[in-house]
Design brief:
The chain has helices at about 20-35, 40-45, 70-75; strands spanning about 5-15, 55-60, 80-90, 90-95, 105-120. It is an alpha+beta fold. Strands 1, 2, 3, 4 and 5 form a five-stranded mixed β-sheet that branches. The radius of gyration is 17 Å and the shape is elongated. The two termini are about 20 Å apart. It comes from Desulfotignum phosphitoxidans DSM 13687. One of its GO terms (molecular function) is GTP binding. Keywords: GTP-binding, Nucleotide-binding. This is Lin0512 family protein.
Length: about 120
């Protein structure tokens, strides 16, 4: 396997206010993380022409990591060779059940994401 170096690590938070949907919160956390960065340095400084050549490692943390659909989370990253994992973390807090949004739920679900973009190690 080719060696790589981290280019950026970005952190995001996602919330599902109604529905207790851990995947939705995790996807929103990834979207929050990647919405904070323009990776222009990949092209303009490093000269990477194929953005799918970079590696994108996504770690999401939620109170029920087993309920996160990793394929949905992976789709949030528009570039790169992706790896996705789900770990215990995030939080739940008391919310409000609104039947128009979802039934039988009164918890707000918070997820966090760490998105790391790595580049192939350049040869000297």
């Amino acid at each position: 396997m080719m060696n790589s170096k981290r280019f950026i690590v970005e952190i995001g938070t996602g919330i599902d206010l109604h529905g207790e949907d851990f995947t939705k919160a995790a996807c929103r956390a990834v979207k929050d993380a990647i919405s904070k960065s323009c990776l222009c340095g990949l092209v303009e400084i490093l000269g990477i022409e194929d953005l799918n050549a970079v590696s994108v490692d996504i770690v999401v943390a939620s109170p029920k990591p087993e309920d996160v659909d990793l394929l949905q989370v992976e789709k949030m990253a528009p570039i790169g060779k992706k790896t996705v994992s789900s770990v215990n973390g995030g939080m739940r807090v008391a919310g409000l059940c609104v039947p128009n949004f979802a039934t039988d739920c009164d918890q707000i679900v918070v997820a966090n994401a760490a998105v790391t973009v790595s580049i192939p190690e350049l040869k000297s």
